[in-house]
Design a protein that fits this description.
Shape: elongated
Helix content: 40-55%
Radius of gyration: 28 Å
Strand order of the largest sheet: 3-2-1-8-9-10-11
Number of domains: 3
Structural class: alpha+beta
């Protein structure tokens, strides 16, 4: 047997037997993927969190930042004045640790009890919270690494307009995740099924990671071999005896061949991009050796004066007809400023200028450009304002996987001349680096996000047409996998009968 004949035979065998094993899995991926177009995995978006907070109205008796421990004051960018457990409090984040201090007494708040968690959930939901908060370290909705600092969590069932479960931090009492019952039910045939989360035991689970990688790789092989076999079997010149271009007369085989030729390319790109979503072997992770966010933040500064006093900040906000629900302190290039946020997610910046408070809507562009240069020893080739979405920085709907990411415009873009050609998008409203991309992340954007979601800004602007095409092609993929299941079942049944004989 020639090498060509051997390769052809093995291609048929690989597609046949891997297809029998993978068709059910790919069918589940297509069905759950269609659900995910409309219902995402439970998350708490910044807008939902801010909308549930009361306005910081009465500043009487509130202590300033100077009342916090010295170690906390050393990192003012990690401090926020918000409302916890029904009263104003400072939330301090430092790496993987989070803590809370009363803004009225300056005392550290003790770990949250079940009763406190229920009260926080009721305030957030604007409705009743049922007694019986359950303490959980991790469950099917809380695999996100962003929740690690708040574990263990309290799961509290709430009623109201959106009955469901709220997850409350045992460290601070904040609601950190919102999982309505309707969203949970759809997720069982959506994201939870799509990502094979029934196999995932914890937030960092190498076994689950490699199971998904291996299964996705095998299904990619099935798709590639199917394209090859489908093209081999199609008569581009002439016809088979039946007068058709396909050799298959039996309906299930015939439809599998025809649908496969029409949709196999899309099936391949979706299965392959699903594999790329797992970032196998870290192929899309740059070293970011040239980027130093600590250098961008600068050295710690002493917190004193009006900038560290909530009463002065709230008075300035009210004079500007702005009603903040939270105050965050930031440090850039060793300079301190306060970021005020209202319930709609709008922001104001307050800085100290010769002892007086000055309010701005965004940071000065020239000032931010000067501070951004400190982020890297490499030269900055470009610093520009982006007023609309580009191929890398764009907003997504809340149900999307990255739908909770902050994407405001205009945004500042800096391109550095390091070995990875790093690009950084800076939020003008806060100075935060919202997105950092090297060569590898750029490639990952195209091989995963684009191929899997068709999320170019131009496509997202035609959302109805985009969803319609995705649903149509997903239906074709479902039909392809469904016919494969019938064909595979018949072949296995035939094999079993032959062995019995």
């Amino acid at each position: 047997m020639s090498l060509r004949s051997t390769a052809k035979r093995w291609t048929y065998l690989v597609h046949r037997w891997l297809g029998i094993g993978g068709c059910l899995l790919m069918l589940l991926w297509f069905v759950s993927g269609m659900v995910m177009l409309f219902v995402g995995y439970p998350k708490l978006t910044p807008g939902e969190r801010l909308a549930a907070l009361p306005v910081l109205g009465d500043a009487h008796g509130l202590l300033g930042l100077s009342a916090l421990p010295a170690a906390v004051q050393a990192e003012p960018e990690s401090v926020a004045l918000t409302t916890l457990r029904g009263e104003p409090a400072y939330v301090v984040r430092s790496g993987s640790h989070v803590g809370a201090w009363s803004a009225r007494t300056g005392q550290v708040l003790l770990p949250v009890s079940a009763q406190r968690a229920e009260a926080s959930a009721a305030q957030f939901a604007g409705g009743p919270a049922f007694v019986g908060a359950m303490r959980v370290d991790e469950d099917r909705w809380t695999h996100s690494r962003a929740l690690d600092a708040h574990r263990p969590l309290y799961r509290v069932e709430v009623g109201g307009a959106r009955p469901g479960d709220l997850y409350v931090s045992s460290r601070t009492g904040e609601v950190v995740l919102d999982a309505p019952h309707v969203q949970q039910r759809w997720n069982y045939v959506g994201a939870w099924l799509h990502w094979l989360y029934f196999l995932r035991m914890q937030s960092v689970d190498p076994v689950w990671t490699w199971v998904v990688i291996v299964l996705s790789a095998l299904c990619t092989v099935v798709a590639v071999s199917g394209i090859v076999v489908g093209v081999w079997r199609w008569r581009f010149a002439g016809h088979y005896r039946s007068g058709a271009k396909t050799p298959y007369v039996e309906p299930w085989m015939r439809w599998h061949h025809l649908i496969g030729l029409a949709a196999a390319a899309f099936v391949f790109t979706w299965i392959f991009s699903g594999l790329m979503s797992m970032n196998p072997l870290g192929v899309f992770s740059s070293t970011r050796a040239a980027i130093d966010t600590a250098q961008y933040r600068g050295d710690a500064v002493a917190v004193n004066g009006a900038l560290g006093e909530p009463a002065a900040l709230l008075a300035a906000a009210h004079d500007g007809l702005f009603m903040p629900v939270e105050i965050q302190w930031r440090r850039i290039g060793g300079e301190l400023f306060a970021l005020l946020l209202d319930g709609q997610g709008d922001t104001r910046i307050v800085s100290a200028d010769e002892g007086h408070l000055r309010m701005m809507q965004v940071l000065p562009v020239a000032w931010l450009q000067q501070k951004a240069q400190a982020m890297s020893a490499a030269p900055m080739h470009r610093f520009a304002l982006l007023h609309a979405a580009d191929a890398y920085f764009y907003p997504r709907a809340p149900e999307a996987m990255n739908g909770a990411a902050v994407r405001r415009f205009p945004v500042a873009v800096a391109d550095f001349g390091d070995a990875e050609a790093t690009r950084v998008y800076f939020d003008l409203a806060s100075g935060d680096p919202l997105l950092i991309l090297g060569h590898r992340e750029r490639v990952g954007r195209w091989l995963f996000y684009f191929l899997h979601s068709w999320d170019l800004p131009a496509m997202l602007r035609q959302e109805t047409a985009r969803l319609g095409v995705l649903l149509l092609l997903s239906t074709a993929g479902t039909a392809l996998c469904g016919t494969a299941m019938v064909i595979g079942y018949r072949r296995l049944r035939m094999k079993v009968r032959r062995r019995r004989r």
